[in-house]
Design goal:
With 168 residues, the protein is mainly beta. It is built from no helices and 16 strands. The strands form 4 sheets. It has a 4-stranded antiparallel β-sheet, with no helix packed on it. It has a 4-stranded antiparallel β-sheet with strand order 5-6-7-8, with no helix packed on it. The mean pLDDT is 93.
């Protein structure tokens, strides 16, 4: 079985998680060139292709020990080359989303945080406490996220640094 599927921007590749193993794979859309990108004990969720199709960001929820996996296990964000190689730990958090230029990743850390991949610096998005599941717009001008306590869908105007409710 598979879960957590994502398509590359060019539509030629997919990435997915094999279940119940929790390993990350990528292949061409027709199933050819299938490559395993992670090994146990990592347990992968929410893979996301970078805009240029060279990298895949994902959430890891076992912290290297699947026997200890549970609700108290802090999730971590990794990046791996789509061609293979060792995954690189980049942040404590989950549910990564790429900026359109591929230079940054926004993620859920109990608040929305943005990691600049060139500098390694992470910044909190103002007003994002208890926001979940960020998604960056294709033009880079907005980040959508769910405000957990109220279950309202909120949109950040990135240039203006202001939130507004989209749906409640």
């Amino acid at each position: 079985s598979v879960c957590y599927v994502d398509f590359s921007r060019d539509g030629q590749w997919i990435t997915y998680v094999a279940y119940p193993e929790g390993t990350l794979w990528r292949s061409k859309l027709d199933g050819s060139e299938r490559t395993q990108l992670t090994l146990p004990p990592l347990a992968v969720m929410n893979p996301r292709w970078s805009p240029d199709g060279k990298l895949i960001a994902f959430t890891e929820v076992s912290n290297g020990d699947r026997r200890q996996m549970g609700v108290d296990t802090p999730p971590r964000v990794y990046v791996v080359n789509a061609e293979g190689g060792g995954p690189l730990l980049v942040a404590s958090g989950k549910d990564p989303t790429w900026s359109p230029d591929g230079n940054s990743i926004a993620y859920d850390a109990g608040e929305i945080r943005i990691l600049d991949l060139k500098t390694g610096n992470t910044t909190k998005v103002d007003g994002s406490d208890k926001f979940r599941s960020p998604r960056w717009s294709p033009d880079g001008n907005h980040i959508m996220a769910l405000h957990e306590p109220t279950r309202r869908l909120m949109v950040l105007d990135v240039p203006q640094k202001s939130w507004r409710e989209l749906a409640g």
